[in-house]
Design a protein that fits this description.
About 35% of the residues lie in helices and about 20% in strands. The chain contains 3 helices and 3 strands; from the N terminus they run αβαββα. By secondary structure, the chain is of the alpha+beta class.
Length: about 80
């Protein structure tokens, strides 16, 4: 279902920035599966991750958690970053 964690630059991706990654270049599973891998990695590191996917791409951000209203703001920003 998922690729080995060592295939991804988690130390870079978990830095709190928003990331846009492409299927075929940055990951080889479906974007939906990749989003699940991102969330699993966040839990393993004691973090939270907000992630969205589209056709051939995913956007995500690792963070400590959300205060009320932050989740919606974060999702909107990620969707814009994805181009949706």
């Amino acid at each position: 279902m998922s690729e080995p964690r060592s295939n991804y630059p988690w130390s870079e991706w978990t830095d709190g920035r928003m990331w846009r990654v492409e299927q075929g270049r940055d990951f080889s599973v479906s974007p939906e599966i990749f989003v699940k891998v991102v969330r699993r990695q966040a839990r393993a590191q004691g973090l939270k991750a907000t992630a969205v996917c589209g056709e051939g791409a995913a956007c995500f951000q690792f963070h400590q958690g959300d205060t009320p209203g932050e989740r919606d703001i974060r999702l909107k920003a990620l969707r814009q970053h994805l181009g949706r």
